[in-house]
Amino acid sequence: MKSNKKISEILIAGIKEAYSKEESSDFYHQTLKVSHSKFIGIFVTLFLSLNAFFGCLYYFIPGTIAGPTEPSFIDCFSFSVQTMGTVGYGTFFPQSIFAHVLVTLEVMMGLVGIGTFAALAFARISLPDSKLIFSKKLLINEDEGEPHLNCRVAHLRNNMVVNAQISLQLIHPILNKGGQVEMVMDQLTLEKNNFHVMTGAFSVKHRLNSESPLFGKSSTELNQENCHIVATITGIDGTTSEAINHVHSYSPDDIIWNQRFKSIIYKDPDSKDHIVDLTLINETESAKRPHA
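RESULT FIELD:
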């Protein structure tokens, strides 16, 4: 019988392979996820390549377009750009049946292509950007006499998240009675998982008692069982009323023992106001109290 680690490695490899195959055919979601610079680069590359292709056809096939002068390649390329963009300055024009067929095909491609990229650009712009982040590490320290698993979540935008729901789940593979591997998601009960109004940063705490799936387990044991902890937060943007969400995954190596998060709130010595510094969300310090 294979070890749990080996089974999980095979399972994850299968998931990655299936995911990559699905991703390769999902043009819409792939386009939404690429960076802005890559999206613009893809559009410019395709646009120039198509116009260069049609420009070559107009230039190397004699008698396709006519104008006040003998068309150069730049003239043919410009004619292609005008045709694809449905501009039509009228300096050059098609003069053969074959040229009219090329123009018809190019206009059709231009309408579909430019329309598609315009729709994708609008979809990218209209995607809700939550500006929610989780701390990079999970901390385990003693709180009120019991060990707790802690992380922090912050909202970086200067508005509120309404009806925020936070969850932590332990994900790991098991071998069921039928001899098949399946993924199990164990809920990690939080001391508080619902916030009617959320702004700034909040602490997320899970009590490591006998009812916790993490009770008595070290980071090494969690690594051997190939466990991961997934943190999620959902809510509604207080300004746009759009649904927003954020997901963050922690590996056992992200768990730090006997550490606590530094306070992100301090008092301004000049104004005497309490200031929230979200740049300190990942700052930690020793949780061990000094001896008296």
